[in-house]
Design goal:
- There is one protein chain.
- This protein has 8 helices and 9 strands.
- The chain has 256 residues and is an alpha/beta fold.
- The strands form 2 sheets. A 6-stranded mixed sheet has the order 5-6-7-3-8-9, sandwiched between helices.
- The termini are far apart.
- 31% of the residues are buried.
Length: 256
Amino acid sequence: MGQDVAISLENVSKTFYVREKASDSIRNKFFNFFSRKNGLREIKALQGVNLNIHKGEFFGIIGKNGSGKSTLLKLIMGAYPVDQGGSVNVKGKIIRLSLGMGFDPALSARDNIYINGSVLGLTFRKIGSIFDEIIDFAGVENFVDTPLKFYSSGMRSRLSFAIAVHAEADIFLMDEFFGGVGDLAFREKSKEVFKRALIDGRTIVHVSHNLPTIKNHCDRVLFLDKGEVKFLGGPEETIVEYKKLFVKKNTEKVSS
């Protein structure tokens, strides 16, 4: 792992404003118009995150649902603007990987390969040259023109993985994505391909609830809770801190 910075976040925060309930009456609309928040509730999804992720690093992000993990990925991707005063800088081509992302269940595997491959930055010419390889690796030779809605979850996962390993980027943002998908035979077949095609030489940012995966593959891990950085360090020590929080919260529930 080199020390060149691939992703830099400085004082990154993200605030959302949501309307809790509809205000249909003229009276409510009138008072909301002149109110400071206009009837909106403020949600601080992330607060003051400072972080450097290095080139070639396998970086993990953990935290319970609603902690801000996916929001952080979207800020890195540029899908959301950061709050004023913060900045995100990315050096290199970046792609987000999530199993099944971009799939249309009404379309066939053939159509989905071209659509999903395009989302991952592949040209139609490139997709055409690796089409048979994708079908063969996913093991769906007899279902090429079958709509994905008739596929089992395992078949979809295998197809998604077979497409993703051909993605061309310097940085991969992985949202609950990993090579161990499908049945045992496919997991064994995909393990080495996953490492060779996606991990080696790439910068990986991996969001997951799968702690064994985080422990076995990450160089460093960020622990988020309620939008704030709780801990940043090696995988083992970060997982210890993560588990401590759950023990503390469960103890507080019992004592209250």
